[in-house]
Write a structure and sequence with these properties.
One of its GO terms (molecular function) is medium-chain fatty acid-CoA ligase activity. The chain is of the alpha/beta class. It contains 15 helices and 26 strands.
């Protein structure tokens, strides 16, 4: 089931963007080094948030609704509420017709403005229904009450609930099997069941004006970071943070109301909730949401030329799209439509994990699209990005600081700022209105991650070239391997190994070793139908691509490499699983 969202929050001129046709025309490749494409924008960021949203909710064939009252929606959402709980949703009548074409199975629903009024406390916890955590019902809550959400086993969900101390719990029907356990663990928190809603509209009526008075410093969103060495922490961002993050991307990536995004990302990560949902709605564009990623569905939508202009995903998704094309579309009657449809895309972004060069190259060969890479994290939203012009999309680089975002590199041992004119690797530090407020109820942990002069320490290592473009080397804690006195980037080794046809996925880690300090080890998932890899011949081939001290000395072949919803691998868990004595 898919859903679509539309908004008239902003006109394209407010974003400073030209027409859709003008944006699609790219400059010819030039032979001069690429420069920071965001310098003109750093002093011209918008400062006024827009708060009108439209919404389409999934469901069966809808009845003919022409009016929908927000109070009625609220009463259904909170159907199991007690009389003592004051309904936070005020009545607002509105109607809207969905003016765009949508695929079969999509339900057109009334528009929905941001809901006014809220209960005494502002922390709500919603349990998402699947690994991607996308559901139109969640969006009803999101647009009125900024939510916290996650997808975990019962034990971890209970931890998140008790740690966040929410005012109420809203449970998706798919989590009904957890209801008793959650209620027993959290007996004092009001509990509400989410009931699916279906409606339709027949006329187009502008959304009513909405004048909310809300301090920008107020806490708005809490997303729990993955815990590798300790329990996950609630990362709290304010309305000011979210507004800046969304407006920054809308400006830099030139979102306009003409854009149409096929959304397949989870909403409990900033990639999905800020880049994909909030910024797109802010620009007045259309968001077509899917409950999960299915390569067949995405290719079918792309074959419908002009059906979408944007697509955001993680490298694993692009790898599966390439594999599906080769297996089911190449050399068939679908190939011409697929190639024409993808060439109509104007912005295709990869993030949340390092993009292997082979995937980038294969995707470009099929679609004509050079993937745009960027750098971000829960605590900062997006901080660095390549530009819209193709010449700024340098292989292996994530680009330049986004408008209004300050980025610097510091020496890990001394803390000294790395000079701009040098290409020395350093720890990435970020400053700006995009940076989060705090880790929830962890003042010491929060203070530890900031410098005395207010810069956030990301924990990631990068290099910067003479033109100011950044190249991520990985997490200082797990992606930098120290072997025999050398510092090795695990991400670099992974990129080189993925260039081999036999390797479909690879994770490179450092294993403790008395002689070398650490040994370079590779966990490999082979491509189906290829001969089994052996360490010695593999090392010979890799020495042609990289220095011998970087080549793995340990090889582990596996059937599957476990990743989270964003395609990320927990390398500490990889070591615990395959080399428990080295963990």
């Amino acid at each position: 089931m898919a859903i679509s969202i539309h908004s008239k929050a902003l006109k394209s001129e407010l974003l400073g963007a030209g027409s859709a046709a003008a944006r699609v025309q790219r400059k010819p490749l030039q032979f001069e080094p690429p420069r920071n494409p965001y310098l003109p924008f750093h002093r011209s960021l918008m400062r006024q948030p827009r708060r009108h949203f439209g919404l389409v909710i999934p469901g069966p064939s809808p009845p003919a609704y022409t009016h929908v009252k927000v109070r009625e929606i609220g009463c259904q959402l909170l159907a199991s509420s007690s009389d003592s709980f004051k309904n936070p949703l005020r009545e607002r009548q509105l109607r809207r017709e969905c003016p765009w074409s949508v695929p079969p199975g999509t339900v057109n629903i009334t528009g929905l403005s941001l809901l006014s009024g809220r209960p005494r406390h502002s922390r709500f916890h919603i349990s998402h229904s699947n690994s991607y955590g996308i559901d139109g019902n969640n969006l009803v809550i999101l647009t009125g009450l900024i939510i916290t959400g996650t997808t975990h086993p019962t034990k971890e969900i209970i931890y998140t609930i008790t740690d966040s101390d929410p005012s109420l719990i809203i449970l998706h029907p798919s989590f009904s099997h957890m209801k008793t356990a959650i209620q027993e663990a959290c007996p004092d928190i009001p509990f509400f069941d989410l009931i699916p809603l279906v409606a339709s509209t027949k006329s187009l009526v502008p959304l009513p004006p909405f004048h909310a008075s809300l301090p920008q410093s107020r806490r708005a969103l809490m997303i729990y970071t993955s815990g590798t060495t300790s329990n996950p922490k609630g990362c709290v961002t304010t309305h000011k943070n979210i507004t800046f993050q969304a407006e920054c991307l809308a400006k830099a990536w030139e979102y306009t109301p003409a854009d149409h995004l096929i959304h397949v990302l989870p909403l409990h990560h900033v990639h999905g909730i800020i880049n994909g949902l909030t910024a797109t709605l802010l620009a007045g564009a259309t968001v077509e949401m899917h409950t999960k990623f299915d390569p067949a569905v995405v290719w079918r939508r792309w074959c419908d030329r002009g059906s979408s202009t944007m697509f955001f995903a993680v490298p694993t998704v692009y790898s599966r799209l390439v594999d599906y094309f080769d297996a089911h579309i190449r050399s068939t009657e679908l190939e011409p439509d697929a190639r024409r449809g993808t060439k109509a895309l104007r912005l295709v972004v990869s993030g949340s994990a390092a993009l292997p060069t082979p995937i980038k190259t294969k995707f470009a060969e099929i679609t004509g699209q050079v993937l745009l890479e960027r750098y971000g994290m829960t605590e900062i939203g997006m901080g660095i990005s390549c530009g819209l012009d193709i010449e700024t999309r340098i292989d292996g680089s994530v680009g330049w600081p986004l408008p209004g975002v300050q980025v610097r590199l510091t020496n890990k041992e001394t803390g000294q700022v790395v000079a701009v004119e040098t290409e020395e690797a350093g720890m990435i530090e970020v400053k700006g209105d995009n940076v989060f407020l705090e880790y929830w109820r962890r003042p010491e942990a929060t203070a530890k991650e900031f410098t005395a002069d207010g810069w956030f320490k990301t924990g990631d290592v990068a290099k910067r070239d003479s033109n100011g473009a950044y190249y991520i080397q990985g997490r200082a804690s797990v992606d930098l391997i120290k072997s025999g006195g050398y510092k090795i980037s695990a991400l670099e080794v992974e990129r080189k190994m993925l260039a081999l046809d036999e390797i479909q996925e690879v994770v490179v880690v450092g294993l403790a070793d008395e002689e070398w300090g650490q040994r370079v080890a590779a966990v490999v998932k082979q491509r189906s139908g290829t001969p089994a890899l052996e360490l010695s011949p593999l090392r010979i081939r890799l020495r042609e691509e990289m220095a011998s001290y970087k080549v793995p000395t340990v090889l582990k072949l596996v059937d599957n490499i476990e990743r989270n919803a964003m395609g990320k691998v927990n390398k500490r868990d990889i070591i615990k699983t395959y080399w428990p004595d080295k963990a």
